[in-house]
Amino acid sequence: MAAPNATDVLLDYDEALAKYEPVLGFEVHVELSTATKMFSAAPNPAAGDDPAAPNTAVAPVDMGLPGSLPVVNAEAVRYSISLGLALGCSIAESCRFARKNYFYPDLGKNYQISQYDEPIAFEGSVEVELEDGTLFQVPIERAHMEEDAGKLTHMGGATGRIHGADAALVDYNRAGVPLVEIVTKPIFGAEHLAPQLAKAYVATIRDIVRSLGISRARMERGNLRCDANVSLRPRGETRLGTRTETKNVNSLRSVERAVRYEIQRQAAILEAGGSIVQETRHWHEDTGTTSAGRPKSDADDYRYFPEPDLLPIRPSAELVQQLRAALPESPTQFRRRLQADYGFTDSEFRDILNANVLVELEETVGAGAAPAQARKWWLGEILRIANARGVEPGSLVSPLHVSELIALVETGELTDRLARQVLEGVVAGEGSPEHVVKARGLAVVSDDSALLAAIDQALGEQPDVLQKIRDGKVQAAGAVIGAVMKAMRGQADAARVRELVLERANA
Amino acid sequence: MAGEAELVRLTAAQLAERLDRREVSSVEAVRAHLDRIASVDPDVHAYLHVAGERALQQAEHVDRDRAEGRAASPLAGVPVAIKDVLCTLDMPSTAGSRILEGWVPPYDATPVARLRSAGLVPLGKTNMDEFAMGSSTEHSAYGPTRNPWDLTRIPGGSGGGSAAAVAAFEAPVALGSDTGGSIRQPAAVTGTVGVKPTYGGVSRYGSIALASSLDQVGPVSRTVLDAALIHDVIGGHDPHDATSLEEDWPSFAAAAREGAAAGSFEGLRIGVVHQLDGAGFQAGVRQRFGEALKRMAERGAEVVEVQAPNFEYALAAYYLILPAEASSNLARFDAVRYGLRVDPGDVTVEQMTALSREAGFGPEVKRRIILGTYALSAGYYDAYYGSAQQVRTLVQRDFDACFAQADVLVSPSAPTTAFPLGEKLADPMAMYLNDITTIPANLAGVPGLGMPIGLAPEDGLPVGLQLMSPAREDARLYRVAAALEAVLEAEWGGPLLDRAPALGLHGAGGTIRSTPGTAPAPGAGTEPDGGTA
Question: Residue A99 falls within a domain, yes or no?
């Protein structure tokens, strides 16, 4: 694998769009959050929070042990049908699993059980809302069930990459995690909004699987993974151009950037009279570039054949009807409802969407916080930390913790200033807000005697202030309040301190 | 108490009765078989692994339970041999391959677990063609098994070890697996009984897969009743095997007892499949087959000829489907997690895998992996794998048509008696043709039972008859087979295996027959050719 290529020539974005029409396509892998794996009774790591020790969340079939057999997880099938329905797909009356044969050390059986010519869901469409409120229909070709592979860690060597490594360790915990792969048809007409559409599409899929409750959908953990296909064709051309498939795009921001980068990179090559190599490309978050992976041709031979260890899946009409009736509202409906319920203005709401915190905000409100408070925190301190770190706000802290934090401020146990410190602790992984308050000793001092002692000392040190207050110059109290707050290291309620200072002075 | 020599000649049913009456202990029965193994297995080589100590411990446990009135089942304490294709927690499971040498699985195959729950005591693991690919057990990485009837001949395959162990009285019963005849063909050439159940009738969980859509685990024994007793224990739904049938199965042992008691075939329509009727088969095989049909007809059966025109293509289809599935099933042997690893250092994982597979797989395994990989390749899939699946459908339809005219179908179990070791090793096609009669049942998923029907006059070696019934009608096979067995044994004056040559005590000078047909025939009047009836 080549190192990230910082020397790619890029064409100016507007110029690229003037000369070429971008055509997009996406393959999004969703790790389902079922209790157990796709084909075994091993616990499913994609459903949990803490990663298990390597090779402990495994059953014989996940390791490809001789004699082991797969058994389909019925819950995963139900999740997949719900997802297919939410994508507007038809659900197959009968579908099969197939074996995709290739050798790789992270694949215990050296074949992946997937679906090939008979996916469980096909022919759908997803409505995606762009930043300016435009609705865009993304055509879905299919959604099929498969199992995830394990993970390789390359050890030693100079580069930390596959080539040059001395050894590799394999962890099969992820092997057999249930996946649904959602494949779009070629997407035309996005034009200069193509990068934005890419981001909005993945965000929509994320919102759908979250509202269905079928995936944790944490992109940074790989619960949701996007491969972005980009091709360009000269204006007026009807045939599709050669595409590249950019992998390893693990945040919404990256999806947008990667598509933009590929458009500019491919346009520069075409402008120079070159041709695009059909290949996978790897996205590098740090440099914001893509690099060539392995060549990919349509003739990759995986020797698919129907999986003989499993029977065809035939979901009953009753089951499909039942799952259809239980579908939640679409992300667009969801947004409209929330905006109305919360009473946010269009501009306030757009900020929430742009920050990708709508679902977090809704869950925070669901946990008891007032919408305005929830908005203040997600778009304020949390977004500030997220931007500083280049991560999604939702990856920093859970909605439940944010709502706890807000409650602590509401009850006066924390001041805003203290609450920000508590948030820091929560983000740093120190536990729940309550826990951080205790561990860091951050609660507001509400013991009047401690405050009075500090006030008496401050008044004693500034006798002139005492006189001024008694003379009616109430604003002079500020100096004493400041001294007390300092003495309490900020852990006091300034309003209460003020009350006590005035009481004391006028006693 | 019976002597050891007598104990090993008891059938499982007989032994179970004596155990139940506490006339004999499981420890005694196990010890008798271990002694028998020690004395004859150096010649026969039926076993790859003998778990002597462990078997005696388990036998002790069973005896204690029985003494306390807690016998796990009527068969508790009966020893059993396990084909090495089945995973066993406490014994290596190699499937006859170098690539799995010494591998001890972390689980029991479901049929093994069910035998243990019923109190049967595993004696050890039996030899087989590597990954069950072969018809002679010569493709075992650990050397061939020899036929107890003639140590210069093959015991059939792939389950030659289980068949030979049972025929040589090294175990009363055994487990086998049958993908295209690996239970029935060894039964034919060793004068034993073997059953391939309906596909899905016995769990495949823990059976190291050869061809998943064809593999089926089944019993190997000396009598029809014993096979039925074992089938009753190992059969039935298993949630660990998605292809396992959710049937309520009748008692096969009850069916066998019914059949033996009736001794009649009144109202039974027996279909002789024209395409498997033995034209071109060894003369002695045809002769005994004809006589068996005659016996059944004399006792009320209606014998009809039925046509299965597509059976002609079954062998070709089988040798596409099997290698295709096998090439995928055997991909897991990559030296990454278990098994043989050839790692000269300074090689990539791909090279390590290639070197390990090169060293760990025998030539027949490589041949079939290459065939299967080719058959599944883009551009060839439709012509090979696709066409083979179509033939499979046609074979199933042929069976449907035949079963509209007959209750059971019959054929010789194998075209010839046991052939000499080495004779067909260099000619894969000749080896493959051995399974011509047994393969259709696997392609269609219907059950098949193989049983002895006499000795071929020209070589004095066993001849087998195959019975097939519609899927899920395994009980019918046991009923008919037990009836025929009763008729034949009455004529012979005892089991066919009584006529097998004695195997010498190891090191004490055996009676190894170096040429066929030289064994002293039993008294002419009791020649098991039915001629005295």
Answer: yes
CB atoms within 10 A of CB A50: 5
In sequence order, what DSSP letters do the residues of B448-473 get, joined into one string?
A: EEEEEEEE-TTT--EEEEEEE--TT-
Q: How many separate helices (H) and strands (E) can be counted in chain A?
A: 18, 14
B177 is catalytic: no
Mean pLDDT value across residues A197-215: 94
Architecture of domain B4-269+417-499: Alpha-Beta Complex (3.90)
Chain B residues with beta carbon closer than 8 angstroms to that of A98: none
Examine the domain organization and report whether A94 and A167 are in the same domain. yes
Q: Are B491 and B528 in contact (CB under 8 A)?
A: yes
- Cβ contacts of B10 within 8 Å, gap of 6 or more: B2, B18, B172
pLDDT in tens, B436-448: 999 999 999 999 9
3-state secondary structure of A26: strand
Are the beta carbons of A67 and B350 separated by less than 8 Å?
Answer: no
Q: In the annotation, is B83 catalytic? A: yes
Q: Are B100 and B93 in contact (CB under 8 A)?
A: yes
Domain range summary for chain B, segments of one domain joined by +: 4-269+417-499
- Provide CB contacts within 8 A for B111, sequence distance 6+: B86, B175, B202, B203, B206, B207, B217, B234
Residue tagged active-site, from B39, B83, B177, B411: B83
Contact B212/A70, CB-based, under 8 Å? no
What ipTM was assigned to the predicted interfaces of this complex?
Answer: 0.93
Residue A67 is nearest to which of B206, B211, B327, comparing CB atoms? B206
Structural domain contains residue A63 = yes
Only one residue has tokens 């078997």, namely B55
| Cβ–Cβ below 8 Å for B205 and A66 | no
Torsion of CA A137, A138, A141, A145, to 10 degrees: -120
Contact B188, B292 (CB under 8 A): no
Name the pLDDT band for B513 (thresholds 50, 70, 90).
very low
Check B105 against A310: CB less than 8 A apart. no
Residues A383, A433, single domain; the answer is yes
Alpha helices in B118-208 (DSSP H): 160-167, 184-190
Q: Which of A60, A105, A303 is the closest to B106 by Cβ?
A: A60
Closest CA to A93 of A126, A124, A119: A119
Q: Which of A36, A99, A110 to mutate to test the interface with B (most CBs of B within 10 A)?
A: A110
Interface test with A, best of B336, B340, B393 (most A CBs within 10 A): B336
Q: Does the annotation mark B140 as catalytic?
A: no
The catalytic position among B25, B26, B177, B182 is: B182
| Last residue of one domain, picked from the residues A440, A472, A491 | A440
A-chain residues near B209 (CB < 8 A): 66-67, 309
* pLDDT at residue A390 in the model: 79
Closest CA in chain A for residue B214: A308
pLDDT of residue B517: 38
Dig out the tokens for A467 from the structure.
């006189």
Contact B93 A301 (CB under 8 A): no
Q: In angstroms, what separates the C-alpha of B25 from chain A's closest C-alpha? A: 34
The verdict on whether omega for the bond into residue B97 sits within 30 degrees of 0, i.e. cis, is no
Q: What is the CA radius of gyration of chain A?
A: 28
State pTM to two decimals.
0.87
First to last CA, chain B: 36
In terms of DSSP bridges, do strands B462-468 and B448-455 run parallel, antiparallel, or are they unpaired? antiparallel
Of B105, B327, B377, the CB nearest to A67: B105
Determine the angle formed by the axes of helices A463-470 and A494-505, rounding to 10 degrees: 80
Which residues of chain B neighbour A304 with C-beta distances below 8 Å?
376
Residue in the block written with tokens 């951050």: A442
Q: Specify whether A219 is located in the same domain as A368.
A: no
Domain span at A347: 329-440
* Res B492 pLDDT > 80: yes
